[in-house]
Fold this sequence. Notes:
The chain is of the alpha/beta class. It has helices spanning 6-13, 17-24, 34-47, 53-60, 77-91, 108-115, 128-136, 154-168, 185-201, 216-228, 239-251, 285-301; strands at residues 65-70, 96-101, 119-122, 140-143, 174-178, 208-211, 233-236, 261-263, 280-282, 314-316. The protein is 45% helix and 13% strand. Helix 1 packs across helix 2, helix 8 (154-168) packs across helix 9 (185-201) and helix 10 (216-228) packs across helix 11 (239-251). The longest helix is centred in the middle third of the chain and has 17 residues, at 185-201.
Amino acid sequence: MAGVTSADVARESGVSRTTVSYVLNGTPNTSISDATRRRVLETAARLGYAPSAAARTLRSGRSDLVLCVLPDWPVGPVVETMLDHLADELAGRGLSVLVHHVRGERPLTELWRTVTPRTVVGLTPFAPDEVQAMRRAGIQVVDTDAGDPDVEDPQPRIGRIQAERLVAGGRTRIGYATTSDRRVAEFADARLAGVRAACAELGLADPLVIAVDVDAASGTAAVDAWRAAGVGGVAAYNDEVAFAVLAGARIAGLAVPEDLAVIGVDDVPLAALASPPLTTVTQSIDREAEHLAARVLAALDGVEPPPHPHDAPKLVPRESA
């Protein structure tokens, strides 16, 4: 039933709205019988009544909602892992997570004023005036994109690890499978810069860069171009792009890694199940997710956030490279 209110629950239960409020909010020291309490709860469940976040905030003086603002990123395994961990940690505090993707021109102000969150977590930078407005409204702001000067950007290092692994396997001509999704161009370009730097330092030619969509046809076309140029190893932007390269190699009749070595990034669960199992680079996403949750909890508790774990990307060697 749409638009069910506490008045509807009270009317159906045959009690006052005050009694409904006491029951649904678990108000202590009230003389409400067990039978009445059960009747109210059963009626609320049957009608589908759910108090709004704004109403809960007005009653308790505190919101139980954490608004997590994401850039316009595709939601893949890495983002899912981070959000799952954040939701699990905050659930232990009785808090719920609402995820908002920044898309279009709608001002963020409209959203946080509507949902009245207790905390806003930004994986994308907030404008200074936006931060001030939220804080004036009593909303805690956790800007994870503010940057830590003591933490080196891991993305170029990821590219270096990929290139070094391919060269260690005897590959002297390297290809780079970038993504055509420009929403993640910042990450793809930084990893490519690492591959390029490693190739230059090792006296190799600049990597042959081809954008690969996550489908077999795109992977096949890229593999054909790389083989025609004498490429023997491919560093992929991430594991999903690497899967497309593996599919293209299979269609082209190439053996991996004998004819073409392939290495990805992220170590998603399917990487170990690929054929052959995919060599990849892990970014310690679980640890990053733990750190994000710890920063939010520190903000809630009014204490200093924990230091960044400083985990460097690590190679996960398997059969594909």
